[in-house]
């Protein structure tokens, strides 16, 4: 499709012509636009995003996608700056840069800025042609757009990653504030993030909306689907199953789960499914970074070193149908992230009545009532994680009850609930 | 009544036709000029746009009037005298305005005030919310708006209470036609990185688009000097380097 002008996605065949593999943000935003169009809040949606390899434009029902392209050097530098920024905002400090301010003085940041300028100019050009009513900017990598566009039309920004006091020191307030304050309103994913946002230089209207998913998209797999999935991954009918559904990334804390599993398997027969691949950014097709592959290699070595070969299954990328099989076959799921904007996979797990063990570093920790709909653990507390795993494996009735409670909590994160909140915010911002 | 001869009648009709044509041409020229000015100044406040285009239109009509009077063979001297006197009166009346307009161009460079700064002029204190060609507007904490004619800022001692005013460097960057703006901006930022030891590193460079005309795009680069006394020196050197950079981008083949 590379080089083509406009592609109508509805004429393509999923799995043959393209793979639908949305990340957390797309999984939320795409159904949001579709519902807003269906409810006549929007006539149409115009979506601008980075896609170095796709066509120039694509149509997907009432949504028109505009793909921004960067030259090879700019793409690589942008990717580096974005990854560094992402780590810093998640409180992960490795080698330099140690702060956002240091990052902003690098040549890589100049390309991050360039990408945002291209997006801003493109959005303004489209606005001149189409006369938009609202600019809804998503995620930290597009943060400068509000300030760069300069237009007085309503601008809303959704910050999807954590906004933690621990990760974002007061010294960054000026830098972040100059971009954030260019928006009419900023939406974050939890109440605690909103409180930090207001303490870190943002002076405008702030909202929090829990991320949401379209529950109607999650069906019940047939017996044959389940058998096919089990056969594919070598699962037996009686196997107890724990799952981690997360992209392959050190911040997802798969290593903690493996270390805990090494303890659990001493007394329990159980399989751990590691579901997911590296992100687009960390794939060879994406920004040319190899984080996902490197993390997979590390985890595979760890599995070997811990003697867990017969207990751990790496499924790689799974289709929606296979994902439904994962949740159905699991006893419970684990999200041991070191840092996590929210953690919609927890909601997915709840939709299937499966409880969760969640790291306190995840935004969704705010919705976990310990021992009621899941367990909370400190991200580095491997023994506690192992204990909670054992508790759930040993008490099927407790597991079932917590799963039922989780299903109730999941209602806070459904598309219907999110839509209601989003409509309210849009109405307030657009007027 | 003296009957007119045919040649005389023809001359009068021709003259009247000429006057009519000149009136039409003047009306068209005034309208065209007004319309061009409106388009050129589309980003200016509507009231200013309206006044400038009206002024230009009046000027065109006055010139047209002179030609018409000349065409009719009337004495131009008295009309020129009247127009001259009116011009002098207008200049005297506009003296203050002109003084304010010329002062406007010193604000930001020699008078370090920017929109958003907290300033004090005489006994008036407030945040600068607008610097227009005639006056600077200060908004006090109580919500009162003080209008300070720009020329007053040259005559009166004023205080800029914003902590970084003494170190702020503002450099206009003219991106030539044909040069890609995002590319130019990236190169400017990379250039600034080379000077980072001379700059306050808590405040990374900020670039914004100030004017996006057909000929070129004007960006504004804002930086903070690490030392106030080096501000002008740094601004001059960076300004020169940026001009060289833009020239290089203009002449280099586009990727």
Automatic annotation (TrEMBL), chain B:
Family the entry assigns: Belongs to the MscS (TC 1.A.23) family.
Cellular localisation: Membrane
Mechanosensitive ion channel MscS domain sequence ranges: 96-162
Pfam family, any one: MS_channel_2nd
Name of the protein in its database record: Mechanosensitive ion channel family protein
Membrane topology annotation: Multi-pass membrane protein
Keyword entries, A-Z: Membrane, Transmembrane, Transmembrane helix
Coiled-coil blocks: none
TM helices/strands, residue ranges: 12-32, 52-72, 78-98
Top-level division of the source organism's lineage: Archaea
GO molecular function per UniProt: mechanosensitive monoatomic ion channel activity
InterPro entries, sorted: LSM_dom_sf, MscS_archaea/bacteria_type, MscS_beta-dom_sf, MscS_channel_2nd, MscS_channel_TM-2
Keyword Ion transport applies: no
Keyword Transmembrane listed: yes
Gene Ontology cellular-component annotations: membrane
